[in-house]
Specification:
Layout (H helix, E strand, L loop, with lengths): L4 E8 L5 E10 L2 E5 L1 E3 L7 H13 L8 E12 L5 E12 L15 E4 L12 H9 L3 E10 L6 E11 L1
Parallel strand pairs: 1-6, 5-8
Antiparallel strand pairs: 1-4, 2-3, 2-7, 5-6, 8-9
Length: about 170
């Protein structure tokens, strides 16, 4: 049985309606644009790890009070017998206040993208569904259901459910 991963992703948003994305290496030979990721979101030091990652990848200083939680994504795998296993819980964070100037510190190519030019085809598939809502100040609870092809081991999203939180 696969163990569940807890992670968080932070999207820095500037006053020009641009979002900061970095390149991540999600599998060998494949890069994907994403916010800044920390895989220890639910640890006691989770927010501290996120602050360290923001600085590591951008050289931008962010304080814990600058992080706003806007949602949670629960990722489920549906097996061939239609049993669900939650494999990832992703906390969605937004930051609109920081100190310092952006620097490419680690080769992750942090880049500002205007909201209408976000490279959704080069992002995780479900981002194109919920990221626009996140950037529009919505708070959400999201469930993503995927199936794994037993031959190719590729993952296909079957359904994405978004519940707005007021």
């Amino acid at each position: 049985m696969q163990s569940k991963i807890n992670a968080s992703v932070c999207f820095l948003i500037n006053n020009d309606d641009e979002v900061l994305l970095t390149l991540t290496h999600d599998r060998p030979g494949k890069t994907t644009w994403s916010g800044i990721v920390s895989s220890e979101a639910n640890e006691p030091s989770g927010s501290q790890q996120m602050l360290k990652n923001i600085y590591k990848y951008t050289k931008i200083n962010v304080y814990e009070d600058d992080l706003e939680q806007r949602g949670v994504v629960h990722y489920f795998i549906v097996d061939p017998h239609d049993r669900l296993t939650e494999v990832l819980t992703l906390t969605l964070l937004v930051c609109q206040s920081w100190r310092g100037d952006l620097t490419n510190a680690t080769g992750t190519r942090p880049t500002w993208f205007p909201f209408d030019k976000i490279p959704y085809p080069d992002m995780f598939e479900d981002y194109k569904i919920w990221l626009p809502k996140l950037l529009d100040n919505n708070k959400m609870l999201i469930e993503v259901y995927s199936k794994i092809n037993p031959v190719t081991h590729s993952e296909t999203i079957q359904d994405v459910q978004i519940k707005d939180i007021l």
